[in-house]
């Protein structure tokens, strides 16, 4: 049966999910809510769905699943309400910027037995999925070193920076999740260094724009992450996994694969200049995976715990930068409600 | 206003167009017809449209435009009927395998002032479009030499071969159109050689499976085409244009861009193994361009004349192989109704 | 024992061979001759060898092998003299521009049992050698289609053009040899088209600057060659072989393998801009192979017959352009002295 | 005037330098010494030089410059002796495994005003030199992040490991030097993590086989280094520099640039499997640069100080791994004799 969707938030990421839901034959977009009336009505007109209040979507009998694309500080409350209302929940990352609040929220999800999926869209990129498949096929043997380069085309506004929770919680968090996804073993230690090279205003806002991170697991696996808020050549997103028998990598993506040759050399176009065009397919696959989880009542992946752990890694990175030392992830997380560390 | 579509033919290419129409907010799929009832009802169920007879679609008041995906020998008749019924027409190539019949048909289209677009989908591939744009920007100067390599993953059935009109009319025809598209000057002379290297049964059916073609224009521009019915590494589709100031090329496409490295070397996956996955975006852009033409009442490109000329080049290639000589295209086409050669 | 070399001609290609001989521990450069005294003395000073007359080199008792780098119209005479003097001979291509003269010359070589190697240096390029090895390993199955793109960075002077024998005998001749090397079957038919797109002065000199060639073998294998006298992006030299089980290609070479990325895209440097830097390793391997042949008294490859056949293919291409038809190679060659066609 | 060379050590790296000296018209190889008599006589026979004792080479009147390729623990003594004997000195890295001993040695070099060049050959790789040139041209703007991936084809013997000073002093030392070369600013802080993933015997010998390093400069520039002692796909040597206006990278090198395509995909050969074939050109350029320095009496680069600093970075990395913290380089070096930190 088709999954009936409500959408909370009709901003740019809300539109991405609306389009993916609309194009998916197993889904139906029933209603949208947004604090800005025009945003909601425009989106509703485009996809032929209703405009409702967030409350009505939470309580609506004709809605099976809700996609949360509202500002971060509303996520945890909405997840709790939706859990209690028996809806399946897809929430854009992060659940909250505060680790304690995330734990509380996940306790509610757990108590209600709700389906919760967190929007680490990159796990659904077909190229990264293919990398994961190569690993799972055993083609590169035991995993040893993961290398992630992740650079944005340009820094966001300082206003955004101030609300973002900082580079580790806002940007690197995707790379932390990708490292966990690829390492196939929990991360034990985080070491990070960060600086302001792109824009002094980012530094004045208390954040960094350039960061390097080293991760290690208990068995000694490594991951390194290299982040910059500005890459003149586009949205730079590379992953590489080195193992005992070989290595696998995913190349950067560009809108078109052409090459112009002349006296200056051979030039291919810049990379995608926007995460939405870079990850178009990933967003569609992500929603499709969520629909599968809702229909099959299987646990959704990436889970709330995945969201929590990535945030914990970000917190550990911040401590590492502040203290100039390797930080055990367990320092940050403490034990969870179920007694496990994660 | 949304363009209301009828679809004739619910086979594999019909399904491709149905999907593109369905996903296009400027279009509406009203009805489908197919000689095989189940094909039509399956497609109708998937996209929520009606099943009708072809006749009803041709005459239907609620239909603005029709996509022809039926067997080749029905194309010319349907185009004539639809022209007279005032429908806009999108027809899969070729219009007919017989050049004389194509001319007759286009005379009717012309007399009725009908909108006709012929399905040379490759012109709408984003990579090839980008190549064309580089040329039009003047980035490579005057065009001199076009190089096209076009190889299928595997040969079709001998049954298909027998009905196909032969490799030049069935397969190379796309490359002839691409050469015209890129050369920006009409082709004057065709020289071809062809042989049977892949499957003797293709030779027994009177066809070839391996072909090389040289084209020249009046001003001395060159194009070369290399065709094979079988490439173990996938659907090989490359174009390259060399000009006075530089060159531009479009690389092959593969489903995912990863690379696995081990003691045997660095391996990227094979290419797409099917023209439909290779040209997914091209099909969507093609329908979108047709919708634009219908809505704006502008002439559709590629036109019926484009279809006719590509067929003429195929006929010239066949004569060239038979006679071992360069064949003037004008030998084949003769003057058209309007006095022009094309 | 070290092979003692005489060098006839101290021009640019003479210098290349002098350097390769000097660096080869199995060889010794004894003497050089050049019509221009200073050219000879400069080269002799650099490599510590004697300056002699050509006659003294031909007759010198302390010389085992001679490298001919003099103007083309002296090659055949020198080969005959050196054959009679019992020297091993390495001659730059072509032996002569006239096929009949080449046959006469090879008859002398044959009668004297002389070792003669013709300078098709590309066979010794490590990348092209690796392509050949892949073919011989059976990795791509039966050979079906060879594709050669070969473009010079810039056209030579019109003076050079006038003495060159024309594009087919001067430039394409290397590609004809490469096609034979890769096809592993003699070429049966040549079809060519040619035009003047780069420089009208080349046309006024009776030559072409842009050419396309199709070759076929008796069993139906294809080769295509695309030539231009001017490529703004450097010395473009690509080969590709498509077979029943796969394909193998050699990429273009550039002086350094770096890539610069910025807002305009990702740029790799232009290709080599000169055949001598492109084929540096090939020249060294070529001389080494000649030394091996001299020392082992094995037949040298490429042989005089290889030189003759490549020239015959050039002649056939010229006839094809003139007559607009496929030309049988046997039309051009006629039977050889030994009764064979080649 | 030609530089007259003595060579100390006729092992594998000694042979590399002997070949480069022999082929260089500005140099002359006069004598070689090796503790293993046959090694010296074989090399002498190949290149036509004398065999002498190390002492005779140090004191030889007919020797201008000496290349030190003996075991590491002899380097510092030899440098001191050669400095006092007025010879120009090229020494393979490292000068010594002990930082204090290196300082003593450099004080002697300084006092004697000797020319000393340390063998960080990678600075002379044409690809890496081209990267440096792009930076110096200002093409990528201000340097921000350097990424180095450096992996050996296979781990050396445990015997070698035990004498090597450990992965940081033996292997990463090249990457430390490359980072300094590219960052264009002294490194301020070193953070490292290391583990044993390749071979437990390496761990038992007290060393690591897998390491990640983060470096930072006072202005906040980053470098990351990823090392493994074993890469099944060959000698993996990549550098990449990200700057304010763009990025530049050097690709991996392989013996031949071909690609084989079949049903399994598109495969390029593995990388070089040995540092000597990978860096053939670098070694020749390195000796050439040394000769230039000797002839022009200019300071040689990389200098003794470059050798010292790279060693200090290795020591800092070791402390970082041991203590789990960022280590200031100044903790390790202390002030030098001349009062500067470096």
Can you lay out the helices and strands and say which pair or pack?
Four copies of one chain form a homotetramer.
Chain A: E1 3-8, H1 12-23, E2 27-33, H2 37-47, E3 50-51, H3 54-59, E4 65-68, H4 72-84, E5 88-91, H5 99-112, E6 116-118, H6 126-136, E7 143-151, H7 158-163, H8 167-183, E8 187-195, H9 200-204, E9 210-217, E10 222-228, E11 236-243, E12 247-250, E13 258-262, E14 265-268, H10 275-278, H11 280-296, H12 304-323, E15 327-328, H13 329-333
Alpha carbon gap, first and last residue of chain A: 34 Å
How would you state the average pLDDT of chain A, rounded? 95
Specify Rg of chain A, calculated over alpha carbons. Answer: 20 Å
Report on the biggest sheet of chain A. 7 strands, mixed
Largest interface: B-C, 37 and 37 residues
Seen as an oligomer or otherwise, the chain set is homotetramer
Q: What does the overall shape of chain A look like?
A: globular
Level-1 CATH class name of the largest domain in chain A: Alpha Beta
Q: And the CATH topology of the largest domain in chain A?
A: Dihydrodipicolinate Reductase, domain 2
CATH architecture of the largest domain in chain A: 2-Layer Sandwich
Number of helices of chain A: 13
Descriptive notes:
The structure is a homotetramer of 342-residue chains. Chain A is of the alpha/beta class. Chain A has two domains: 3-114, Rossmann fold (3-Layer(aba) Sandwich), CATH 3.40.50; 123-281 and 308-333, Dihydrodipicolinate Reductase, domain 2 (2-Layer Sandwich). Chain A has 13 helices and 15 strands. The first copy, chain A, has helices spanning 12-23, 37-47, 54-59, 72-84, 99-112, 126-136, 158-163, 167-183, 200-204, 275-278, 280-296, 304-323, 329-333, and strands spanning 3-8, 27-33, 50-51, 65-68, 88-91, 116-118, 143-151, 187-195, 210-217, 222-228, 236-243, 247-250, 258-262, 265-268, 327-328. In chain A, the strands form three sheets. The first copy, chain A, has a seven-stranded mixed sheet with strand order 12-11-7-10-9-8-15. In chain A, strands 3-2-1-4-5-6 form a six-stranded parallel sheet, with helices on both faces. The first copy, chain A, has a two-stranded antiparallel ribbon with strand order 13-14. In chain A, strand 11 (236-243) and strand 12 (247-250) form a beta hairpin. Chain A is globular and about 55 Å long.
């Amino acid at each position: 049966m088709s999954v009936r969707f409500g959408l909370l938030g009709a901003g740019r990421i809300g539109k991405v999910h609306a389009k993916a839901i609309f194009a998916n034959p197993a889904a139906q977009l029933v209603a949208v809510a947004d604090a800005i009336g025009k945003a909601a009505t425009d989106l509703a007109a485009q996809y032929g769905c209703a405009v409702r209040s967030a409350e009505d979507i939470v309580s609506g009998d004709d809605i099976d699943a809700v996609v949360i694309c509202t500002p971060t500080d509303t996520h945890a409350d909405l997840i709790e309400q939706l859990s209690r209302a028996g809806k399946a929940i897809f929430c854009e990352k992060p659940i909250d910027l505060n680790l304690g609040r995330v734990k509380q929220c996940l306790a509610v999800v757990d108590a209600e037995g709700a389906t919760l999926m967190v929007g680490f869209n990159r796990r659904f990129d077909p190229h990264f999925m293919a990398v994961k498949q190569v690993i799972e096929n055993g083609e590169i043997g035991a995993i040893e070193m993961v290398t992630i380069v992740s650079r944005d085309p340009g820094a966001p506004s300082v206003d955004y920076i101030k609300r973002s929770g900082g580079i580790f919680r806002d940007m690197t968090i995707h790379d932390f999740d990708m490292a966990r996804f690829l390492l196939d073993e929990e991360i034990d230690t985080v070491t990070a260094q960060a600086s302001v090279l792109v824009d002094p205003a980012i530094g004045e806002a208390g954040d960094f724009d350039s960061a390097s991170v080293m991760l290690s697991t208990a068995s000694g696996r490594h991951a390194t992450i290299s982040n910059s808020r500005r890459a003149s050549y586009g949205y730079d997103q590379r992953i590489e996994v080195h193992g005992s028998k070989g290595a696998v990598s995913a190349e950067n993506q560009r809108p078109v694969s052409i090459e112009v040759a002349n006296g200056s050399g051979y030039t291919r176009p810049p990379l995608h200049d926007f995460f939405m065009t870079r990850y178009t397919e990933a967003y569609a696959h992500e929603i499709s995976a969520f629909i599968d989880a809702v229909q099959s009542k299987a646990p959704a992946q990436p889970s709330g715990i995945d969201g929590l752990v990535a945030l914990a890694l970000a917190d550990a990175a911040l401590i590492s930068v502040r203290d100039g030392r390797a930080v055990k992830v367990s320092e940050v997380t403490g034990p969870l409600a179920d007694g496990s560390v994660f």
